[in-house]
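Hi D.,

Good news: the full-assembly prediction came through. Inputs first.
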Amino acid sequence: MRRDPFVQLQDVVVKRRAKAVLGPMNLELSGGGFTIVLGPNGAGKTTLLKVLHGVERVTSGSVTWSVSDKTAQQGQAYVFQSPVMLRRSVRANLAYPLQLLGVSKAEIAERVAHWGARIGLSAVLDFPAPHLSGGEQQKLALARALIRRPDTLFLDEPCANLDGRSTREIEDILCEATQAGARIIMTTHDLGQARRLADRVLFLNKGQVEEQAHADTFFIAPKSSGATAFLNGDIIE
Amino acid sequence: MSGIWAGMVEAFLLVWSLDADLIDITLRSLKVSLSALVIACAVALPLGTWLAIRRFRHRRFVIATLNALMGLPPVVVGLIVYLLLSRAGPFGVLDLLFTPTAMIIAQVIIITPLIASITHQAMRELWSEYHDLLISLNTTHGQRITTLIWDGRRTLMTAALAGFGRAIGEVGAIMIVGGNIDHVTRVLTTAIALETGKGDFALALGLGVVLIALSLCVNLTIHSLSRTEREGRW
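Then the structure:
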């Protein structure tokens, strides 16, 4: 059984050039499935994800996982909005995180074959990953994250600029991952996608959590004025 | 023009006749310069990459110094190595002066800053591309350096070839620490200097043509051997 909450943020502040871009923030996240982070541009969604993942240092405050920092870090993966492709083949990109973990060659070959087939890139496993299309690169980045079998997967607008078919394929893979037990924390600008996937919603505005609610509650009856305006498609300044 | 033509003819005759002295000098040139290149790369590639990924106090000063060392005068390097290896010097007991090893040491000192500096420039760009991913994967510094060197290997080939070009064409330092001793430390560049001094311009030019051809051959061979992208497959 997973302990809840799995992560707590206490008085977290992130400043850049003396200006707070996130916080002060107190937040607890719990439960599995999808937690969707919504908010207007500049709300601090990406910063929050990076703080949770530990790749962005907090200026003050603390981030505490229910497990040790090392265990938490090893059980996490992150997919960036613009996929970062290693200048290697598709196969080598998939194998890379497993090599870092010291997984045996036989198991790496097995998992690479599985994920290559799952994302429909079996035929191009030996092609340079940077030469793939945007949609293929995003699927590869997702597979490279999931091949580690993470407990927690962070996704920063994974379907931005993708066509409907690619978006559908990525959502299918994400749903499979949550069914396999992974928890997903994801930012998106696509309200339709948020409605399709979200179990819980975190609404950020100006670096603050304005609302945290179950998806049904949030989309039917948001409590904050900012969330209401956001769902109505109003411009939030 | 007749002198250049005579040099070309001399070079052709030297190669065609498989002149024993020429082969001896050429092989020694290759041995010294390639040895220096391998040692310099072993130091400079990780050093340049490390400088690209690490932030520390006085980092800018270190990089500026490294860049400045690219212009090290070979004669000064030769003099310092000579003093260090001479009988009265701290390493005199090793008895390395006027040996190919001394020449390798001098060349390593000359080309390491050059390779490290070019590596640093190339790796800085790659690191900005890979930064988020490698941090996210919780990689160690060693893993980051290895990954960057492997993925940037084709760019680093330029750095290595620049180092080789400087080493094979170097004359000042190796003349001082090697002594240009026939059949012991004589290489193409010191032989060219000697023949020019003697007034045998045709032979000097012939050796020069051989040197250029050798440099081109090594460059093309390394490029050919290291080519990892073939017909769109990696």
